[in-house]
Design goal:
heterodimer, A: mainly alpha, Helix Hairpins, 3 helices, 0% strand, elongated, B: 717 residues, mainly alpha, two-stranded antiparallel ribbon, 28 helices
Chain lengths: 102, 717
Amino acid sequence: MVPLSWYLIFAAALFSLGLFGVLSRRNAVAILLGIELMLNAVNINLAAFWRYGNVMDMAGQVFAIIVFAVAAAEVSVGLALVISVYRRRNTVVADEIDMMKW
Amino acid sequence: MTTETLIWLIPLPPVLAFFLIVLLTNKSKWLSHTVGVGAAFLSWLASMIVFFRAVSVEHLGEHPFESSINWLPTGNSWFEIGVLIDPVGAAVLFFVSITIFMIFLYSVGYHNFGQPAGDHDRAGLPPHGATVEEHGHKHVVPSVEPMYSRFFAFLGLFAFGMYVLVVSDNLLTMFVGWEIMGLCSYLLIGFWYGKESARNAAIKAFMTTRVGDVFMLLGIAFLYSATGTLTFREIFTEETLHMLAGHTTFFGMTVSGFIALLLFIGTIGKSAQWPLHVWLPDAMEGPTPVSAMIHAATMVSAGVYAVIRMFPLLTADMHGHGLTVTMSIVAFIGAFTALFAATIAVAQNDIKRVLAYSTISQLGYMIAAIGIGAYVAAAFHLITHAFFKALLFLGSGSVIHGMEHGVLHTGNHKVDPQDMYNMGGLRKKMPITFWTFLIGGFALSGFPLVTAGFWSKDEILADAFGHGHWAVFITLAVAAFLTAFYTMRQITLTFLGEPRTEEAKHAQETPWTMTTPLVVLSFFAVTYGWVGIPEHFPLLGGLVPNWFHDFVGHTLAEVPETPEFSWIPLLTSLVVALGGLTLGWLYYRNVKSVSEDKLQIPLLKNKYYFDEAYDFLFVKPAYWFAENVVYKLLDQRLIDGILHISGPTTGGIGKFVREKFDLPFINELVGDGSANVTYWFGGKLRAVQTGRVQQYLMLALVTFIVIGVALYFFVLS
């Protein structure tokens, strides 16, 4: 059986990848993509801990499914916002969307 | 309805009328007087039913109508109030209800109901008359009183006070009724408050009676602390009286005697006895129905009634036939007042003032009678006097009214319509008033056999003579002579001879609302004497049973004995009454003007300078004290001084605290300081808010890492 640490290292790598994408990419759609990666890294962690912990306790799996649902909702809202911003300001670059500045 | 319930209800209609008139109907004169007179009628009706039921009960003295309810909790028992109608109460209720009803009716006419409103009448002043046009020419007629409704409201409250006093079975509610009347007399005497004299008279009446009332209240308090009850029937038991008579208190007097004296001082004030008599003549400033109400039917009678009620206390420490100390004082004050006031009445020219002094004198008669132990005679004279004196006052009001008519006709307002020297010959102009006034006057003088005044006065004289009180007997006989004399003087000057002024020639008879009460009252002024004819009286005695003595005499357990019949007091009263009347007529039929009147002695004219003396002794010092001590010293120096010191001191402390603490510390340091700090931090921190999502996220990451590292090194390891 593959040891737990492999899953954790993989999840951490995926999370870092996603975080780097979020912080470095200028395109808002790409930032959303990065967030998806980070969420999925978390899901991997959840699934792995469930599998290696008490299998009868379904909390890990249920939690992962809830994260899917939330991620789907978040992406749909996020993309809708991005489209809306694009229509209005004709850009999807995150740095240029600074209407909330003081 | 049981009699007891009915007695409870007697005082209610007038007080309801008072509130109705004050709150609802005061805009409508017609409604107000209907409510007032109607209430007086209801009370009269209830009183008559109670009276006739009381008369038909045998031994009412032992088993009076009484009923009481718990009122105030006093520890583990209750202070009870209730109603009581015993023979004296029933007899008093009889005359009170009739005279009150008559006075209400009379007021309708006296205040010119149905006449037009005056040309320039103002509230607070008597009506001046109104101009009307009739058949093409103008003339002046009497105008309606501007505060007509208010008058009936006050009368109602006054009647309530009197009924409460009469039906009370204890001293406390009796005192309540007593004080309600005190207030109403103040309001009614000052009814025409626009006149300064009326205002002063009202204050004088209130203050003077207050002197007596304070002593009375002391007496009540003393009685309550000594016996623990104020109910008449409980105080007047043999044990209680014996206990009260057995102890001595201040000045070596017995407790009962001292309490009786204190209560009697209340009566001195209320019944205007010397030395507190000064308010009553001035009270003539009020409208005439008020004079009748206060000076005949109710308030002054209340004083005598109270002493009659307290009679067992007076006699509690009596041994044999000798008078107790208190009784001697009572007898002295009564007899002295009777003579003293009669002498003043001889020299007065105001028709109402003569009657006022006459009232004082007659009340002195009653008080003297109580003082020598003849309380039945006193009650008898109280009732007959109430009838004929109410009659005389209402009659004099009618005369004044007729004279005012004459004054309005000639338009000469300088003529005083109350001065008897402006009258004369009115018998032809005002026949009903004349005949009823004559009956009242003769009753007052004690005209033999036919009038009520003769029988009651004769009974007092007979009692004084029969029990050997010579000084009282002689004083009262002289007073009776003077009474007859000034009464005849009044009748002669007012009604007989020829008119002395143009105004008297044009005087007019008054309307039926005023003459009806005169006729009704004159009926009683004659017939009421016949219920009290002594049994041993020659010829007439025994024809009619001496009902009054039998009835009222049973109020107390011991029926007072009637003195043996003697010719001396009878002859005396015959001589003084007839002599006084004849002399008065002989002298005054020839007197044409005031300058010919030889009896206008300054000493009498000025009422023995009592007003001046009291002014000097009490009023001036009181004013001086108020002005110099209370106002200038206490108020201006002391109180204001304290204020002037404490005000600036507080101000100084306040200023110091503000400048040294509030402004620098609280305001600048704490208040402004915190705001400044927040402002400065805000200015610095706002640079963080770039509006760039990725920077925020970066910041969050860095913070997370820093906190994580810190946790790892400082907490977990």
